[in-house]
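Sharing a chain and its predicted structure for anyone who wants a worked example. Both blocks are below, sequence first, tokens second.
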Amino acid sequence: MADGGARTQHWATQKERGSFVLMKLTALAVRRLGRRPVTPVLYLIVLYFFVFGRQARRNVRQYQDYLSRWSNRPELRPRLRSVFGQFMAFADSLLDRLDVWSGKLRLEQVQLHDPAGLRERLLLSQHGGRGQILVGTHLGNLDVCRALAELGEQVPLNVLVHTHHVAHFHRLQGEAGDRSLRLLQVSEMDAALMLDLSQRLDRGEWLAIAGDRVPLHDGRRVMVDFLGHPAAFPQGPWLLAGLLRCPVNLLCCLKIDGRYQIRLEPFIEAPAWERGQREATIARWAQRYAERLAQLCLLAPLQWFNFYPYWQAPTSPSPAHPTSGESDAHPRRAAR
């Protein structure tokens, strides 16, 4: 949650001031004082970000305006109260995130919406089954999502991230009492990385990656229609799925009526593309994902926690080009 300043600033270069710094301060205060005494102070801090974060306010207003127009729901039009409400929802999610890390939020406190029975696949991966890919989003609380796997079924969950704050977040999680979440920094999808991920899947581990943020130093992005306007979405999740021959499922966790609801749904059962059709196929998957994400936004409109200029077009077109050592071949063969 940072004041973007220049509209050309990428979300990762802002270091998510409202996420990492605020989380660190909150974690320290909660550990010393407990959640209840800290809550009013956190709200005051978020109020400061709201008052002085002009660019962040503008970005939230743009999102709310696009959502209202796309859905033809005038009650969702941005107002001062709704914009501030989105900031406050973010503060609330930080406190809940710390509860997850410290083990205070249990699986039985979370509702599971899983009409396709994907939870059973999580269990099967513990007994010789192959892992799968979970594509998450910054709509809602990503950390509560992992309660399903780590706290509930003890399924190894590897979270692929693109920022350079992995070490900081590991330390912060340890301070909060959680040492189980595996964060893997993904800077380049080379043969060594693909082999490592494939081996993790073969061991029954699952991979989780966000589908709504474009890496800073990675040209793999695709322009899709999101809420009626073009936006850059990452190709990484879909590229991984095709190269690893791994089914893809969607995952999000929304707080509805004061209680978290984890939503699991299958998305691509057998990802593959014909020769020469990789870019077009990935573009179709990304567009389908954007359409589903837009529908999910209507379930919890104020829980969209992307505070940067989301609909800013990339500075230059960046079609999907394989990095060194990458091809359409299966990762095991490419890695040899």
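Comments welcome. The chain has one domain: 11-334.
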